[in-house]
Amino acid sequence: MERTPALSVPHLASTSRPRKCFEEFSLRLLSGSSLLILANKQDIKGALTPEEIAKVLNLEAMDKTRHWEIVGCSAYTGDRLLEGFDWLVQDIASRIYVLD
């Protein structure tokens, strides 16, 4: 995964699995890569909020060279999906260097 600008994260459906899933996944996440977490199912009562997910995953403690964003969304309604992918594209674009 050398030079990988972005990676996707598996769906975090339950509160019992997210931390373990993220720890295993983040071992492969390169420093400086963009991490977009789509906090799906925000249209369903009881869904973890983006803030709760950040806390469960301990994102504040992550290496500061890793760019991350959590976007609360609903794949069912399409709400905020584009905002998430817009962030991802802009974040990657901000780190692309043009060689002379």
From TrEMBL:
InterPro entries hit by this protein: ARL2/3, P-loop_NTPase, Small_GTPase_ARF/SAR
Protein name (record): ADP-ribosylation factor-like protein 2
Highest taxon listed in the record's lineage: Eukaryota
SUPFAM superfamilies per the UniProt record, alphabetical: P-loop containing nucleoside triphosphate hydrolases (SSF52540)
Keywords: GTP-binding, Nucleotide-binding
GO molecular function: GTP binding; GTPase activity
Pfam families given in the database record: Arf
This protein's record includes keyword Nucleotide-binding: yes
Residues reported to bind GTP: 40-43
